[in-house]
Amino acid sequence: MIIGVLNSGGDCPGLNAVIEGVVGAATRRGWKVIGFYDGFEGLLSEEGNDKFEYLTPAKCRGLRAKGGTILGTVNKGNFAIKVGVGQKGEIEPAVLEKTKQTVKRLGLDALIVVGGDGSQSTALLLSEIGLPVVGVPKTIDNDLGATDVTFGFNSAVEVVSESLDRLETTANAHQRMMVVEVMGRHAGWIALQGGIAGSADVILLPEIPFTLENVVKSIEERKAAGQREILVVVSEGARLADELILLDEKTQGEVRLGGIGKVIAKKLEDATGIETRACVLGHTQRGGSPCSYDRILGVRFGSYAVQLVAEEKFSYMVALRGGEMVPVSIEEAVETLKLVDPDCQLVQTARDLGVCFGD
Hints:
Elements: E1 2-7, H1 15-28, E2 32-36, E3 52-55, H2 57-60, H3 93-106, E4 110-115, H4 117-127, E5 133-137, H5 153-174, E6 177-182, H6 189-197, E7 202-204, H7 212-224, E8 230-235, E9 246-251, E10 254-257, H8 260-272, E11 276-280, H9 292-310, E12 316-321, E13 324-329, H10 330-333, H11 345-352
Helix pairs in contact: 1-9, 5-6, 7-8
């Protein structure tokens, strides 16, 4: 067999680990693996202008420890159909026809697509034209309901935790407040877990409505008790007065979030009189080598995706449930976002530690 693999959507730690898992499992079965460059765009290869390479275990040796992806990835282009949760987009007929020609020319028997809900929705459209696909979930936001966890998430949490450790020392030295903005469009998992690990005093999430008055009250109580430093963590998708804070840019139908950290910092400084600094971690959460957990999870996902190909379980996505790998239909996988339950044990643990959610 000849199978393809590609990464689509945003990058995150662990993508290379998935590739290594795919190549290792496929090679053991005597199959060939084609890695397509820059997401689905690689499927538009033409003779003399190929956008792919044949991958071997020798080329992928030790790949699991490297950040980024050797294949590259894009979240826009000819295959970008993201129009919102639960909505279905379309791919231009000419693009689909060119994809068919590439598949036929290369003798491709199946395609493993590593990506989030938008990428998996694109994979489903390709399956409708006869290309057998298997999905691998990818998002540092950890917001896909079909799987217990996605690779890259734990690495992002470690970045947040380490950053808070560093910011705590400088905040303590100057008796400052630090407001740290982290990723999380719809779901606040990074802020929640990173905030708990990094001893945040305040954690603001998209799922828990908050008021500045409640946050200010909590901060003033801490200062009155003699605390020198204040650490506030806020998800980029948290709503201030029920409004999202947006950047000016707009890409592929989705507005770009960002800037809430700076806005919150100014308002809290004005209300409390505490010298405040804002820090946006941004793409540092996506970069760098994956943590050991994500290296293992990545190769497991890649290996199991090959197993699903061998079992001809197409239009399925691999998922981790209860510590075991299981297949979930891609259609089911992209239906539901996994959001933070305000009443979950993790939130309750944070409350028991004195964390303020502003509600």
